[in-house]
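Dear H.,

Thanks for agreeing to be a second pair of eyes. The structure we're designing against is below in C-alpha cell form, covering all 319 positions.
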C-alpha cells in the first residue's frame, strides 16, 4: 500500500485526531509522501519505527529546530527531502537506490551525507542513478561520494558554479559503469569543451549522452574540438565506442560555435547502412547510431549539412 498526503499551508495547525490517524497507519505503509510537511509531524515520524517503509518523500524540513532527525526505516530504498539547511538527518544512506534533496550549499550537502560518520566519505552501494543540481561551487563533493554501480549521472551546473575537472575525473574513475550522462549548463561559463571531452573520455562505457545548454555556455562547450573528439576513424582508438544515442539542445537562439560540415562528418563517421555492415568482415570499432537529435533553435543548417547526412533515416537523425 502507498499513500500520498499533503498538508497546506504548513503553518496551519493540524487536527490532532488526523495526526494520530496518520501516525497509526504509517507503520503499515511501504511508501509515504508529504509534498508539504508540518514540522511537528516529521518530528513525530522520526520517533517511530517503520519496518515496511521503502520510500519516504518529505517536504521542507524545519530548519529552526536543530535536533537530529533519526528515522528507523531498515528497508528504506528511496528518500527525498526539500530545502535542507542545517538540520541533521540520519537514514540508512548506504542502502539507498535513490536520493533527492534540495540544497544551495555544498558544505551542507556534505554535512547531511556524512551524519554520524568518522569521515566524510559516503558510499551508495546500490545507487544506479545520481542527479546533482548546483548553483554554487560544489566540485569537491565528488571527492566524498562513492557509487560503484552507478549507471546514470545527471549534472546541472547553474550560475555561480566554478568548474574544477579533477574532482569529477576522480569520481568517474570510481564509477566505471556509467552508461548515461546528462549535462545541463544553465549559467556555468567555466565548463568548456576540454571539460566536456574529459567527462566523456572518463565514461568509456557511455551509450547515451545528453547535453543541454544556455546559449553562452553552449558556444564555449559544444565546438569543433569536442565534435572532432567524437569523430571515428579506422585504426584510431575511438572515444566512447559504445555511444549510440546523442542529444544536444540549445533552444535559446540560433548562434552556434561549430562548423556544420565538421558536425555532419562526425555523425556520418559513426553510421553505416545494414548492407554496409553486412559486407564487413568485422564490425566497426564503434556502435552505430540509434538516435541523434540536435535542437539549435533558429539555426539554419544549410544544404551541404543535409547532403552529408542524407543516408541516415529520419527516425535516427532529427535536427
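And this is the sequence the design step returned. I haven't edited it by hand at all.
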Amino acid at each position: 500500500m502507498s499513500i500520498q498526503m499533503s498538508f497546506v499551508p504548513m503553518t496551519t495547525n493540524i487536527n490532532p485526531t488526523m495526526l494520530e490517524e496518520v501516525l497509526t497507519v504509517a507503520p503499515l505503509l511501504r511508501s509515504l509522501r508529504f509534498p508539504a510537511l508540518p514540522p511537528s509531524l516529521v518530528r513525530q515520524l522520526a520517533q517511530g519505527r517503520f519496518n515496511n517503509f521503502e520510500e519516504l518523500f518529505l517536504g521542507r524540513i524545519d530548519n529552526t529546530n536543530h535536533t537530529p532527525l533519526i528515522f528507523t526505516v531498515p528497508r528504506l530504498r528511496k528518500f527525498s527531502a526539500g530545502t535542507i539547511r542545517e538540520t541533521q538527518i540520519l537514514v540508512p544512506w548506504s542502502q539507498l537506490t535513490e536520493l533527492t534533496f534540495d540544497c544551495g550549499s555544498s558544505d551542507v550537502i556534505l554535512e547531511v551525507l556524512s551524519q554520524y560518520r568518522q569521515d566524510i566519505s559516503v558510499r551508495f552501494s546500490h545507487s544506479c542513478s545520481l542527479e546533482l543540481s548546483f548553483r554554487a561551487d560544489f566540485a569537491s563533493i565528488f571527492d566524498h561520494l562513492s557509487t560503484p554501480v552507478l549507471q546514470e549521472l545527471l549534472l546541472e551546473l547553474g550560475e555561480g558554479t566554478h568548474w574544477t575537472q579533477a574532482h569529477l575525473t576522480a569520481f568517474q574513475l570510481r564509477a566505471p559503469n556509467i552508461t548515461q550522462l546528462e549535462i545541463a549548463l544553465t549559467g556555468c561559463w567555466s565548463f568548456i569543451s576540454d571539460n566536456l571531452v574529459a567527462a566523456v573520455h572518463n565514461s568509456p562505457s557511455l551509450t547515451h549522452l545528453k547535453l543541454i545548454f544556455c546559449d553562452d555556455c553552449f558556444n564555449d562547450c559544444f565546438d569543433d574540438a569536442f565534435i572532432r573528439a567524437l569523430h571515428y576513424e579506422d585504426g584510431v582508438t575511438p572515444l566512447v565506442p559504445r555511444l549510440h544515442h546523442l542529444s544536444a539542445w540549445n533552444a535559446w537562439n540560433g548562434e552556434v560555435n561549430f562548423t556544420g560540415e565538421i558536425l555532419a562528418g562526425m555523425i556520418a563517421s559513426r553510421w553505416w547502412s545494414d548492407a554496409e555492415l553486412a559486407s564487413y568482415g568485422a564490425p566497426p570499432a564503434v556502435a552505430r547510431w540509434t538516435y541523434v537529435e540536435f535542437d539549435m533553435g533558429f539555426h539554419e543548417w544549410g544544404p551541404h549539412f543535409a547532403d552529408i547526412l542524407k543516408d541516415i533515416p529520419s527516425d535516427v537523425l532529427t535536427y
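Two observations from my side: Residues 272 and 288 are 7 Å apart (CA to CA). DSSP finds ten helices and 16 strands in the chain.

Warmly,
E.
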